């Protein structure tokens, strides 16, 4: 709670308290209060990176280890907000601090993290509020127009029906309230099924549309829904069925279910290697050229209590290569006025601490560090550092011999050396002439279900080839690359050391963040390390902080794991489709995957024809997911990444789409499970009990098989698209029209009587999730056009780069008064 001190007295009191030699007690012996490293201020929030500091007085996050430490903060007179919550490494509180106070607290070893809001935010909020009020007043003066983006019902898991509706209002202000009502099926009264207020979805301050926060459970499948706005707009639309398209069941002898436990990358790689050996006629192993850094660390030991008296040593050799054999002891001589000294016997280091005239210890952490680094024998074995850049002016206490350790817990069967990443290539003809599909899993280490999904898919393809006609067609007609674990080092670490490890194990942090307490905060987020729409290009959703879970790395494609993906798509240019499988939440997404927060500027959106192709394919793919146990991926979690999740700067799907034209999707396995007792959707997490993880692997493997079916249909597609011009509205001075198609395709058109080519205007989307654009002309116009589908088939066989005139033609008449 806020103190009663006035602002001037409070600042004086804080300054006085910070001038005193106080330190927070070190409850995590031998690790001081900074149980997790604090990212530099300039790297905490992307919108503050230009200044590198908080903008004036700011509301800052502060993390303390326990209630006692919190009490000491409060006794210092800090302006604490009425906010407290437990976090993994202690207790998080929020404090209003000046930049000087922030620096002083950090100097005292207090874990002050990033700004929640500062003066720049206040100014921006004020400006946004004024703009919103003005827009709301303007919008309130007229009835708004409602555009229904999606209106669907679906079943999930145990047959429970759900309703999902998305509607966009032309009145974008926060005061606009949309209400939906629906019936109970054909012939039932309007509104008889129920009514609900819709939620307003915004992203980086921009209005997107209204929807239900989660799909609503319904007893009966609605036939029609009516949405009304507080501004007077209304619209009634049919409610259609989402997913559940009829699927031909697998062959009579089709076999599935080949995983019975979570597997580490060593097991997974051994599994696909054995499969290639067992099925050499239709599969082979591809060794990726860039080995990982390895599941290995230098050995370390830390000494001290308070931050000022703490130091640590790091072995020059990796732990398994001898670093774990080094020991360090701190000895206090009994004699007065002894000099600081270092002796080394083999791999045992002894520091004899200096004493003063009364035989008390007189060596500071900095002096011990300098002595170790200055001794030739000791510095050949270890590097010494003070704690996170601290001056190290606290006195060091004697300590018995402590053996350094790399803290790695995996059994010795898990090799510590750089890992040879492998891909399993499946196909009857593997010459590069067939359409290629790249299925890859576990970019993020903690996502244990995803490699099982890739392994299950490989097993199904190979073991059903001889017995199931549908499988045989897929394997014969495609060139399939399955990489079940992109991030083997991080995945080993997640399984044996720290289950929430997201990144790889490459340590890019400087010495300030090299201590043992930070060992779970090192590594690069591989799905932020690619070269398109990256953090380095100014896109949101990644960090420059080496201790952030979304650390983009020191440069684009700095990591061997990311370079392996790029190498594969360049080595095999026949790859036209890809699927990146992650967890969790139950999403099905596609590019673009990143935007710049300022103005929400996304990477170029895919064209209208490709977007429609993504949507049409999703019906087939997600119906396959649903076919295993009934899980439905919500319509609201299906679509381009920024529309349904958030910006992910430098992700791999964007890399493959924008640089190679690879049609790529992202699965997030692990859809929320509906609890019939609580009537709530419940998340499953990264590592659910295996019974749940198994089901997720099975259903999303079915989805991966369906992606292969989509790719095969693409490879065999020789049918030309057909299109029509449809007039949708007229006034006395204009006519509005659009184009309809019998399959996803792009339409190129001209309005000036010229011959249409691939350089002509292309039919675009009307807006996010809004269907085809409407084209308005103010005079009678001869429209020329043709359509091209995703496979490159051109309507009527027209050659846009030739001289023929067999394009489509129609006259749109404007009847002027």
How would you explain this protein's 3D organization?
The structure is a single chain. By secondary structure, the protein is of the alpha+beta class. The chain has 5 domains: 7-122, no CATH class; 142-241, Immunoglobulin-like (Sandwich), CATH 2.60.40; 265-292 and 416-716, Zn peptidases (Aminopeptidase); 298-403; 723-812, Sandwich (Immunoglobulin-like). A hairpin with a 7-residue loop joins strand 16 (298-303) and strand 17. Helix 12 packs parallel to helix 15.
Any descriptors?
Immunoglobulin-like; 5 domains; 8-stranded mixed beta sheet; 39 strands; disordered N terminus
SSE inventory with pairings:
Blueprint: H1 7-19, H2 41-44, E1 58-64, H3 67-75, E2 79-87, E3 90-97, H4 99-107, E4 111-117, H5 119-140, E5 146-156, E6 160-169, E7 178-182, E8 194-197, E9 199-203, E10 206-211, E11 216-218, E12 224-229, E13 234-238, E14 240-241, H6 265-278, E15 283-287, E16 298-303, E17 311-318, E18 327-331, E19 341-345, E20 348-352, H7 365-374, H8 376-381, E21 382-386, E22 399-403, E23 422-426, E24 435-441, H9 449-464, H10 469-477, E25 478-483, H11 488-496, H12 560-571, E26 575-585, E27 587-590, E28 595-596, E29 601-602, H13 608-629, E30 638-640, H14 641-644, H15 652-660, E31 663-671, E32 673-675, E33 680-682, H16 690-716, E34 723-730, E35 735-741, E36 745-750, E37 775-777, E38 781-789, E39 808-812
Parallel strand pairs: 5-14, 18-20, 24-25, 24-26, 26-31, 27-30
Antiparallel strand pairs: 1-3, 1-4, 2-3, 5-6, 6-10, 6-11, 7-8, 7-12, 9-10, 12-13, 15-23, 16-17, 17-21, 18-22, 19-20, 23-25, 27-31, 28-29, 32-33, 34-35, 35-37, 36-38, 38-39
Helix pairs in contact: 6-9, 9-10, 9-16, 12-15, 13-16
